[in-house]
Design a protein that fits this description.
The chain is about 20% helix and about 20% strand. The chain has a four-stranded antiparallel sheet with strand order 1-2-3-4, with helices on one face. The chain has helices at about 30-35, 65-80; strands at about 10, 40-45, 50-55, 60-65. The N and C termini lie far apart (about 50 Å). It contains two helices and four strands, in the order βαβββα.
């Protein structure tokens, strides 16, 4: 039996864009990426955006519906560090 899932894979929305990427491929997180170089952002299969600060202890993870909300949550998480 073969399992078929009608979902697209999660898309990484990091601050770097691979060479050969067109303007249409640039994720909506791109305008905020320079403010948060230590954060990784991706869109989950549920449609929410997730953010994670690399090498943090305890782990800093935020989730929101749009890039502006993720940015605000990251600022709040950074201020509590």
């Amino acid at each position: 039996m073969e399992l078929q899932v009608d979902r697209e894979p999660a898309i990484a929305l990091s601050g770097t864009v691979p060479s050969g990427t067109t303007a249409l491929d640039v994720p909506e997180w791109r305008p905020f990426a320079r403010e948060f170089p230590h954060w990784q952002v991706w869109r989950g299969i549920n449609g929410l955006l997730y953010g994670r600060r690399a090498k943090s202890s305890p782990p800093l993870i935020v989730r929101g519906e749009d890039p502006a909300e993720i940015r605000d949550l990251m600022l709040a998480a950074e201020s509590r560090r």
